[in-house]
Amino acid sequence: MTSDAPLLSAEFLAVDTETNGLARERCELTEVGAVLVGGGELHDRWSSLIGVSQPVSTGIQRFTGITQAMLDRAPPPEAALPALADRLRGRVLVAHNASFDARVLRQAFSRAALDWPAPPVLCTVSMARHLAPLQQRRGLGPLAEALGVEVGATHRALPDAELCAQVFCALFKRLCANAGTVGEAMALLSPRRRGARPRPRAPKVRRPVERRPDLRALTGGPGVYVFRDADGRPLYVGKSISVRKRARQHFTAGAAWTARAEHVDCEATESELGALLLEHRLIRALRPPANVRGVREADGQVYLRCRLDIAFPILEVAREPAAGHAVCIGPVRGRAAAAELVEQLNSLFGLRHCGRKLPRRYHPSAYGQMGRCLSPCLGDLDPNLYRERLEDALRLFVDARDGGRALLDHVEGQMHAAARARSFERAASLRRRRERLESLLFRLGGVLRAVHSGARLVIAPHPEDRARADALWIAGGRVVDWARLPGAREEVAVRTAEALRTAPVRPGELGGWLAPDELDEVRLVAGWLASHEVQTLELEPAPVPGRVEAFVAAALRG
């Protein structure tokens, strides 16, 4: 439609969109509704749910009434949006806060590799501002009520599009009294500074379409991609559970490096964990300029750690494991709960409550006076006694697969021993401590276990096909081997034996040892495993023959 088309004879399409509630390039369309308006009356109605690449938060699900299950069954953007494009051609797009809806739609069309129809756009908020200036509340519902339009259900695309269409019809006569053509209506409603004279609108120049690398060969599943310039130098490394879709999104975000992207390489993986691990290793190897340095921070995840290379070691809470000789427990969620657990362990085993630097005291601290600290700060404590107490505490999380359960059993054993010795006050105190520890462990979530302890075979599944997975052998906190299933299924038993032979930590050792350049990968893998339910086979003690093959077969069957 041209801007000189008569306003009275034009057709309008009132549109409303629902999204996942995120900002900028993370914003995805979840539903679109459209109502055809002509001659001041409502005609055809159309709506569709739109599939999304990332799960929608529970808050948005409650707000819109669009559940994740509905979106899982919805058609993808490339299948649903062509019907909307057909309805927009030759018509004027009308929306409430039209700049938002038009931007969301343009972004969705770009991600789906579809041409945006670029229709003329009119906004009912601007219409109310210019044509009903006494109406101060310009939200869709309040504005409709002020214009005498009945308001029903909201926050779904089609009901909101119908309400927008009715508001548009209520203001249409006033618009026609002030503008004769579509172009004049757009000029009338365009925002301008107060006191500024209207300037003639310059002819719209269509910007050249940005040339993109050929993305058709990229996998539609999980994997890693590398954008390169014309000379083959890496520009950006990324990962996704849907590589082709994620690679397209970079060209809607306006990143500076996309103008230099000429080629794109891709390596498919069988799982999100595999993609995350491969991305990290490629970033370290290629050092692309567009990647932010470091590992993505896991929300709220912390470690309990103890450096064993200092005199009278202490337990502390930190965001990452410790380099060197140390015991690192976690990751767990919640710094405050983790700090309280450290205090409980210190009091239970008589460990230091002060910082890493040991102060020199001439009198016991308050904890020492209460019998909750061995008081090495006095300078007369046998270091071997302190180490024994420290080892008793750490062994709960090194030797046991569930350190939280081992800690509760330890306190319960002390409680029964105190009761047998008829020390009932101490038994009651230990009972209260056990109840508090249960509450803390529930808040922390997950399994409290030293990162370096044990060896495990982890099956990380494909996000869509349960018959495919990545097998990862983890020992000493590190990924020591990695294979794709079912392709390497016949080699799993042999590779398991080799992983155990080359494991960096031997059974019975108290602490692990991590080089500084290994911390990021250990934190990445441990953080992902702590927040996902995956099938794991413990490899210490070594499983009997046939156990590994049976485990893998069961995991691939789902």
Could you give a short description of this structure?
Helices cover 39% and strands 18% of the residues. With 558 residues, the chain is of the alpha+beta class.
Separation of the first and last Cα atoms: 54 Å
CATH architecture classification name of the largest domain: 2-Layer Sandwich
Q: What radius of gyration results from the CA coordinates?
A: 32 Å
Strand content: 15-25%
Gross morphology is elongated
Biggest sheet: strands, sense, closure?
5 strands, mixed
Number of domains: 4
The CATH homologous superfamily of the largest domain is named Ribonuclease H-like superfamily/Ribonuclease H
Which stretches of 5+ consecutive residues score pLDDT under 50?
A: 205-209
Instruction: Report the top-level CATH class of the largest domain.
Output: Alpha Beta
SSE-based structural type? alpha+beta
Number of strands: 16
Helix % is 25-40%
Strand order of the largest sheet: 3-2-1-4-5
Arithmetic mean pLDDT = 86
Find the CATH topology of the largest domain. Nucleotidyltransferase, domain 5
Indicate the multimeric state.
single chain
Number of helices: 18
